Amino acid sequence: xGRILAIDYGVKRxxxxxxxxxxxxxxxxxxxxxxDVLAFLAQYCQKEEVDEFVVGMPKHxxxxxxxxxxxxxxFVRKLRKQFPGKKVVTHDERFTSRMAFQTxxxxxxxxxxxxxxxxxxxxxxxxxxxxxxxxxxxL
Length: 139
Prior knowledge:
Radius of gyration: 14 Å
Number of strands: 5
């Protein structure tokens, strides 16, 4: 069984999280520049078996697209093209940045570290992945 890799895509930075090989635990992996993400994923997939990609899909509270939705849709298209043998799914990412920020506060992470957007992106990807894993339990 391979890992599931979650992607919190942004036009500047991309937060990444991954499961263990048994697809039970979600852990933050890295934050990379958006222009480098496909190369990073290709390199990662050479080292680790990845069964599936989960991409956070940004939506407003009412379900309408955000300004970033079109960028994510374009990224998903590129991801499917580069990794044709891998399953690529999207998952609702509403509130993940806010939840990531609150997680950092709850963990006692200082104000200066919380200002690091890369850390927020990585935690957001982890929350997307954990939410996706939990949603699969009910299918």
